[in-house]
Amino acid sequence: MRNIAEIFKKEIRFYFSTPIAYVVMFIFAAVFGFLYFRNLTYYSELSYQLMQNQYFAQRVDLILGVFAPVFNSNSIILLMVIPPISMRLFAEEKKSGTIELLFTYPLRDVQMVLGKWLAAVTILLCMLALTVPAPFMAFGFAKSAEWGPVLSGYLGMFLMSLAFLSLGILISALAENQIVAIIVSYGTLLAFWFIGWAVDPDSGRQIGKILGELSIISHLTNFIKGVINTTDLVYYLLFIFSSLFLTLRVLESKRWRG
Amino acid sequence: MYGQTVAVKNVSFEVNKGEILGFLGPNGAGKTTMMRVITGYFPPTDGDAIVAGHSVLTEPLEVKRRIGYVPENPSMYKEMKVVDYLKFIGSIKGVPRAHVGESVDRVIRRCALQSVTGKHIGQLSKGFQQRVALGQALVNDPPVLILDEPTSGLDPKQIHEIRELIKSMAGTRTIILSTHILPEVSMTCSKVVIINEGEIVAVDSTDNIGSRFAQHNQIEMIVQGQPEKIIEKLSELEGIMRIDNMSNRYTLDVEKDRDLRAQVAKKIIESGFDLLEMRTKAMSLEDVFLRLVMEEEGV
């Protein structure tokens, strides 16, 4: 436990003593803010018009009108800002040679991986925390606050981001430098994103369904709608767990190969 | 193994508590590989290393707790301050939380780092960085220290300081250091392992190794007189293998285990020359090293 905490502290200190954390958080908050503002103003204009009609007035919904589109677009921003957080975790230690001493300290690989991973998760949580004022603001103007779908949307974004991070740390352990790590991370994440579009899931073909299930983004949709599905939960947890497990195997094989 | 090339093979030696062992070998001989195996950085494909009773194969964490390692070009976290870095290393090396501060203070004094505690490691000179590296190795007070070319890249003053530091750290500790600098071994080590191309060519105490591998002793002397005549007279003596001279300085290679000093002196005086100076010279570590390494290569 103590070793994990020490590695965690060292990584956190690094993130905040260099511009990385600030830059990533600023970009994320700025883009999120812009998306949110655009959707909210669009929605308020639209709802004003819809109010003229009794039938449509009942259909007006902050979740469908604002949060679902914002959360959906947000997943793209997360895909952009998470690899810069994860790329350095191992690649930097390998490039600068600090990994040699690290490997000779009485540390288990799992402590190293968890300490680093948790530090990156903390940055992610700080990032998501920056967006929390948004729903408070929106619900402050609304007659009734519907928190359920917003919370499940956040849970979905958090799980998906954890999946991005875990894949990122695996690639960082494989890559010899950070540039390679970030490019391969983008490539792999985009592949997991697009895989669902390879074959139309509604075409009735089995392969379409399978690829659709593999897609890292398709599992977010239910969360955003306010539905927490076991399949989606298991998908993300399995994705995270296998990435971290493979990271451990990679470190072990690096040792054996010297 | 690095890829398919066997880096080190059939290597076997022992170091006892309190000894300073020198790994001596030309660059690329396998010194670093051997040290990395001992530190648990990577496991041997065959064989084992036992450190303070623990095997690197089966109990790597126990071994790592007992070792302080300074790699050849120690890479440390450049953006960390010296004192924070040492605290961090102390903690992950298992120094009890309450004693971390105390251990770090001790190491700072020991390695004379007082003036740079608040500086970032990246800003320090090579000499100070080397001391910080020694500091991180010492912070948990390990019984075994492994130093890979501890003086490489330092200026002569720094080399001297680091050597003194290393010597002062011996005593209760076992130190293994590698080097390709010969005087370093005779100056700091009590025992030498000479390796070449991944194999041990000699293991012995620093004092013994010179005489053990010497095939002959040398007598150096200064004699006044005509060189041709002196050489002619000396050649009459039995047991002299070779005579070299530079003006009035003479070097005689004498068969091992024979002391010819008395006969040589008598011969020179009897022949009417003046003997001004005479001394014996044992084969230096450098001669031994060169000979062993050359023989290996079949030169």
Give an account of the 3D structure.
The complex is a heterodimer of chains A (258) and B (299). Chain A is mainly alpha-helical and 258 residues long. Chain A has one domain. Chain A contains 13 helices and no strands. Chain A has helices spanning 2-17, 20-50, 54-59, 62-86, 88-96, 98-104, 109-129, 133-141, 147-174, 178-194, 206-214, 220-225, 230-257. The radius of gyration of chain A is 21 Å and the shape is globular. Chain A starts with a helix and ends with a helix. In chain B, strand 10 and strand 11 form a beta hairpin. Chain B has 299 residues and is α/β, with parallel strands linked by helices. In chain B, the strands form 3 sheets. Chain B has a 6-stranded mixed sheet with strand order 4-5-6-1-7-8, with helices on both faces. A 4-stranded antiparallel sheet of chain B has the order 10-11-9-12, with helices on one face. Chain B folds into 2 domains: 20-211, 3-Layer(aba) Sandwich (Rossmann fold); 215-281, Alpha-Beta Plaits. Chain B contains 11 helices and 12 strands.
In short:
The complex is a heterodimer of chains A (258) and B (299). In chain A, 82% of the residues lie in helices and 0% in strands. Chain A has helices spanning 2-17, 20-50, 54-59, 62-86, 88-96, 98-104, 109-129, 133-141, 147-174, 178-194, 206-214, 220-225, 230-257.
Helices and strands in order, then pairings?
The complex is a heterodimer of chains A (258) and B (299).
Chain A: H1 2-17, H2 20-50, H3 54-59, H4 62-86, H5 88-96, H6 98-104, H7 109-129, H8 133-141, H9 147-174, H10 178-194, H11 206-214, H12 220-225, H13 230-257
Chain B: E1 20-24, H1 31-39, E2 50-51, E3 54-55, H2 60-65, E4 67-70, H3 82-92, H4 100-110, H5 126-138, E5 144-148, H6 156-169, E6 174-179, H7 182-188, E7 191-196, E8 199-205, H8 206-213, E9 216-224, H9 227-235, E10 240-246, E11 249-255, H10 261-270, E12 274-281, H11 285-297
Parallel strand pairs in B: 1-6, 1-7, 4-5, 5-6
Antiparallel strand pairs in B: 2-3, 7-8, 9-11, 9-12, 10-11
Helix pairs in contact in B: 3-4, 4-5
